[in-house]
Amino acid sequence: MERVKKKRKVKKRWTPLKIMLLIALVLVVGIGGFIGYTYYQVDQTVKKIQSPVKNTGDAVVEKQKPVSVLLLGVDQRPGERGRSDSIMVMTLNPTRNESRLISIPRDTKVDIIGKGTNDKINHAYSFGGPEMAIKTVENFLDIPINYYAEINMQGFTSLVDAVGGVTVVNDIDFDYEGEKFAVGKINLDGESALKYTRMRYDDPRGDFGRQMRQRQVIEQVIDKLSSDVSISKFNAIMDVVGDNAQTNVSFKPMRTLAFDYMDAFKNQENLKLEGTGGKEADGIYYWHPTDASLEQTKTALRYSLGLE
Question: Which Pfam families match (predicted)?
Answer without folding.
Answer: LytR_cpsA_psr
